[in-house]
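INFO worker-7 received task bundle
INFO bundle size: 2
INFO processing item 0
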Amino acid sequence: MEYEFKRRSSQVLNLTPLIDIVFLLLVFFMLTAHFIEDEAIDIQLPLAESSQPSVEDDTVEVTLLPNGELLVDGRAATMDNLEETLRGALHAPNKRHVRLKGDQAAAFGAGVRVIDAARSAGADSLDILTEKP
């Protein structure tokens, strides 16, 4: 009896199309990620010669817009409920400081009311953010 040996196929999986697709996906994500912009509130900080760089730590940021609107950590607030909102935000762990980021065109009286509300809410300190000229 004669035995016929099975021939082994020498086919190898072709990975070239897979590598091409991975590179195309990489290029696609690199190009699209470049066009993503962060949304930001356009405010003009007041200028001060003695201004120092701000250190990012756990603080509550109050933004005072030129039209009088208030944002507490990015969420809308009103002057009437500002003290309650700040008290709730300062209740979080490690948040005992308030930063006032006010537009230079905002009313001075509104800034004073924010400072007063921060004191009443129990803030340990309040920083007013400015820019160097």
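INFO item 0 finished
INFO processing item 1
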Amino acid sequence: MLSERMLKALNEQLNKELFSAYFYMGVAAYFKDKGLDGFAKWMEAQAEEELGHALKFYDYIFDRGGKVELERIEKPKQEFESPLKAFEAVYLHEVGVTQSIFKIVELAQEEKDHATYQFLQWFVEEQVEEEASTKAIVDKLKIIGDHPNGLFMLDRELGAKAPKLRALLAQGGE
């Protein structure tokens, strides 16, 4: 059984993960509108990942006898000054998610909830990867500056990380 405090924290994180998916779709829409389809695909793939994270929390809450509480999701930002500003927002968002995960880890330690502590270790590792990958793209965008050739090359590179859900739906998969 989860304590009330832990259940509340896990539900809050579940809702943050759902917002993260929504946030990434908003950033994808910005890039799609700018004709940067590779950037958009990268963001769409990230949105799918975030939905997967939400499902992990959803399942874990039920596995531990808790009740899922879904909240209203706020509208994400869809306008940015530049691709760099968009990725800086993404990086800062991931830093915030990391801090949120760390707070739940600390709560699990405080409550001696070993199962939840173990469950969260996957997310701790995932956030290291998320922060590193978004920071690397921010750094590349700073180097590229206003050079369209560099931007289009990065667009092509990022497009390699394509979302999978559309392909499954196109095949009639579920």
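INFO item 1 finished
INFO post-check item 1: The radius of gyration is 18 Å.
INFO post-check item 1: The mean pLDDT is 95.
INFO worker-7 idle
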